[in-house]
């Protein structure tokens, strides 16, 4: 059995010879594509005894000309990440509010220097408007990593406590240069219904990026696990 691949193929699995695959630009459902629920059941069977393996979602988008960058965030019905380190650029009372809301790293100009020198590790980056001019000095460092705070992404706000709480629980995603979104969505050990709910929540958020038709915006959807096969689904 041959499936269209966009990145790489591994040997046939013990589950009916399924190949690992990721999204490609083929719009028509592959003859071997399956319903989302069935795809999840296959992954669970493949990774039996490994409940901590991550379920991954791979979505090939076909944006219209002039489409803004495909990215976003959403709150999953069931969070799967154990810990997200949130860094906040803030001073004074806003710094206190950020810490109280659960921010892991908070600071002003001195923190900008630490980030520039790669002395701190973090997963998400937020800022108050007042700190943004100083943070702009390291935009070339943060930007390529998708970490530069911006008003458009909702990562710059006077209400720093609110965006800290959101960042601690939100699932972020962004498309690569080929307009493919790769993101983790759940753990294999979750209930099938929980995995489906998480996937549909992210899919709705991805479709919200569409400049035109939301139906035509998604060309193909695959799910996989960290070590398992890639499976094309036709109803995500």
List the topology elements.
Layout: H1 36-46, E1 54-61, E2 71-75, E3 86-89, H2 92-100, E4 105-107, H3 109-116, E5 124-127, H4 132-135, H5 139-142, H6 160-169, E6 170-174, E7 180-187, H7 192-207, H8 214-217, E8 218-225, E9 231-233
Parallel strand pairs: 3-4, 3-5
Antiparallel strand pairs: 1-7, 1-8, 2-6, 8-9
Helix pairs in contact: 1-7
Throw out a few tags for this protein.
236 residues; alpha/beta; three-stranded parallel β-sheet; 8 helices; 9 strands
Account of the 3D structure:
The structure is a single chain. The protein is α/β, with parallel strands linked by helices and 236 residues long. Helices cover 28% and strands 20% of the residues. The chain contains eight helices and nine strands. It has helices at residues 36-46, 92-100, 109-116, 132-135, 139-142, 160-169, 192-207, 214-217, and strands at 54-61, 71-75, 86-89, 105-107, 124-127, 170-174, 180-187, 218-225, 231-233. The strands form three sheets. The protein has a four-stranded antiparallel beta sheet. A three-stranded parallel beta sheet has the order 4-3-5, sandwiched between helices. A hairpin with a 5-residue loop joins strand 8 (218-225) and strand 9. Helix 1 crosses helix 7. The protein is globular and about 60 Å long. It starts with 35 loop residues before the first helix and ends with a strand. The model is unreliable at 1-21 (pLDDT under 50).
């Amino acid at each position: 059995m041959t499936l269209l691949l966009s990145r790489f193929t591994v040997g046939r699995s013990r589950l009916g010879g399924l190949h690992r695959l990721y999204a490609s630009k083929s719009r028509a459902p592959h003859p071997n594509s399956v319903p989302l629920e069935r795809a999840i059941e296959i992954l669970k069977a493949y990774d039996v005894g490994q409940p901590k393996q991550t379920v991954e979602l791979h979505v090939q988008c076909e944006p219209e000309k002039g489409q803004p960058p495909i990215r976003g965030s959403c709150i999953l019905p069931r969070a799967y990440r154990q810990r997200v380190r949130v860094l906040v650029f803030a001073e004074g009372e806003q710094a206190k509010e950020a810490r109280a809301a659960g921010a892991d790293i908070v600071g002003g100009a001195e923190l900008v220097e630490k980030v520039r020198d790669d002395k701190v590790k973090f997963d998400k980056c937020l800022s108050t408007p007042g700190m943004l001019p100083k943070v702009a000095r390291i935009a070339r460092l943060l930007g390529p990593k998708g970490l530069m705070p911006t008003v458009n992404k909702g990562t710059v706000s006077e209400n720093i406590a609110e965006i800290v709480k959101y960042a601690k629980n939100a699932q972020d995603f962004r498309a690569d240069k080929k307009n493919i979104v790769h993101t983790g969505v759940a753990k294999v050990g979750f209930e099938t219904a929980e995995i489906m709910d998480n996937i549909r929540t992210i899919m709705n958020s991805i479709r919200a990026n569409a400049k035109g038709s939301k139906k035509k915006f998604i060309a193909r959807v695959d799910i996989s696990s960290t070590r398992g096969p890639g499976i094309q689904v036709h109803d995500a």
